[in-house]
Amino acid sequence: MAKKVSKEKSKVELDTVSVFCRLKPLKDDTELSCIKLISPTVISLTCPNESKVVRKDAHYTFKHIFTSYSSQQEVFDRVAYPLLENLFNGKNGLLFTYGVTGSGKTYTLTGEHYNPGIMPRCIDTIFNSIKSNQLPKFMVKSDRMNGFDVQNANDAKAESLLENKFSKKNKKKGEKLPYTYDGTAIVEINATSMYTVFVTYIEIYNNTVYDLLDESGTKVLQSKILREDSQKNMYVNGVVEVEVKSAGEAYELFNAGHKRKRMGNTLLNAESSRSHSIFNIRLVQLGNVNNSNVLLTDENFLKIGQLSFVDLAGSERCNRTQTTGMRLKEASSINNSLMSLRNCLEILRENQVNNSNRLIPYRESRLTHIFKNYFEGGGKVEMIVCANPTANDFEENMHVMKFAEITQDVKVIKPESRYTPYRKICKAKEANDTPVNKVKTLSHGTKIPYIKLDPENIDDSIASIHNLTKILLSRKRNSVVHNRELNMKEKQLREKICSINQEHNANLIEMKNVQQQFNKMKRKCHRLETKAQELQMLNEMVQCKKESHTDTFTTPPSQRKETHYNKRTLDSQRQKISTVKQDNANFEYNKKMRKHRENTELANTDEKVKRVREMLANSDISVIRAKQKFESLFTESTNKMFTLKGSSRKQIRRSRSVDNVLRRQNSDDISE
Ligand SMILES: Nc1ncnc2c1ncn2[C@@H]1O[C@H](COP(=O)(O)OP(=O)(O)OP(=O)(O)O)[C@@H](O)[C@H]1O
Fold first, then answer.
1. pLDDT in tens, 362-373
2. 151 and 282 in one domain?
3. Is position 646 annotated in a ligand binding site?
4. Residue 558, domain member (yes or no)
5. pTM attached to this predicted model
6. Domain shared by 93 and 128, yes or no
7. Residue 561: CB partners within 8 Å, gap ≥ 6?
8. Residue 146 and residue 239 in one domain
9. Could you tell me the distance, in angstroms and rounded to a whole number, from the CA of residue 511 to the centre of ligand 1?
10. Residues 405 and 497 both lie in one domain
11. What residue ranges carry the coiled-coil annotation (predicted)?
């Protein structure tokens, strides 16, 4: 078996990608066509008269061209039947439809309810072929890491009974097919093998993978990540892989998934696929059935064939479809992924032609990443180019044909039958068996007997020795077998540990990425919060300003509102006003006080002057003394008076005039 698994590199055979073309019928005979059929393998593309750019006629060759009259059966027979034969030989196959939106890709792969396309026909053919050689359900189980486990028939039966009980409560699975099929079957299948079929259905929407069979109950499909298994095959982590036992069951699952697929109404197609969808069939072959119809499963390898049907979303020029918003985003994502596919194929071809070693950017898009294995020799690749021959589609058809030209130049390694190691699981036994018990039950055969050699009975002794030799030889043979089994188990265990380790590492990396993303988002959130606060403050200020301005313009000053903003300014202004008022009051008070003082002083002086006059009038003898006293009093009061301003000066002048009068009176008195 090891020989089967290992590949001898020297014997590597290359195979080109098979490219077919299918022409969609024109709506009516009056419609102009830009595609002419030259031969069953050649078409010519003619530039329509009304085209702005004049281009020469171009010829394109395909493996086969299906005209608008070709039936779904014809397409199936030529394209899919050989892939099914490969599938039964444990070889992988990839079939994808490519073309402009509305050119008939979904029609070719899925078809209509009563006129099925390639995919339903394939499912039917598989079940027609394995009819009597189906394994009981749940004997082979997906390990959710692209591998399989095998359990014994009793455990499988118990699980199946449980499922039946459950499904009876809910709904009956495996409805009848909506069409009657002709019973096509693969002729050459290994009739001694037992088979079982698994299906998955995923879509790639806006470069994210979603599981269309996910029935976990959440309304929104959860995104999935791509992983590499222990044999370097790409797979969708945690994808729901369902074991189906009839074509009806598989078709029902497909329909359920198709309802979840993102479709949309565009100008060019009422039911346009907005995502790339991949329906995957895995046919698992287990062991051989002997003459008495007993399954021998001790080979430890499963023969697994995989067939992937890819319905690519159509390339579209947004100015033609007039898409906007969400549809525009979808369209650009579709075009980007198709561009990546084209890019990868171009580099692959360039590497093969020039013998160069340029890195192929499979990781650029999920679409190319998931099919990396196929382009690296993991299986047979086929493509159907769908074309709508209307003159309006000329430009886009030209791009599609160029892509087809590149694709059919690409060579991939011819696929080989795939054998995958599996893990045997035995629930009932494993639960009871402790490691100690296992050691106890491990025996190399019949117990070594105790023999006693009797020299007197030589014949008996010789017979005993013969018997012992026989037992020992059988034990030796058994021990060799056991050792081999042990080595095998050890190898499997190692592989399992390696894959668990890989899984663990991938999880760690993923966790780290998620953590980084989370921290980044947290920082961003914090920044946005601060900015929001700032903006809120700014907004409040602007609002206040606006209110104050509105207030100023709309209401008279006496009725103006005191808003939050002008309140503050008013407060400060009020404060200023109050200080100014205080100053003014102080000033007034000082002024009054000064005036008051001046008045009292003047009154005092007047009083003194009056008294002096009276004295002068009453006594002539004391005139000189009185005059002296008057002089001193006058000087004193004048000094005081000089400190006063303005009005007080008048008083001084008045007192001087009084003084002059007095002097004159005195002089008159003396002369007399
Ligand atoms: N060969 C054909 N014969 C008859 N009808 C066809 C054929 N090809 C396509 N059609 C019809 O044309 C319409 C558009 O086809 P379809 O949905 O398969 O296009 P598509 O390429 O998958 O488009 P999109 O990329 O937008 O999903 C459908 O109504 C389909 O029935």
1. 988 999 999 888
2. yes
3. no
4. no
5. 0.62
6. yes
7. 547, 551, 555
8. yes
9. 43
10. no
11. 511-538
